[in-house]
Amino acid sequence: PSEIEMEFLLRDSASGGTLYPWGDSPLPPARFGNYPDDAFARSQPGWRLWVLRGYDDGYPRLAPVGRHLPDAHGLFDLSGNVSEWCEDAFVMYGVSYEAFYEPDATPSRILRGGSWHSHPGRLRSSWRTDADADGARSWWGFRCATPIPALEPDAPR
Question: What is the pLDDT of residue 17?
Answer without folding.
Answer: 80
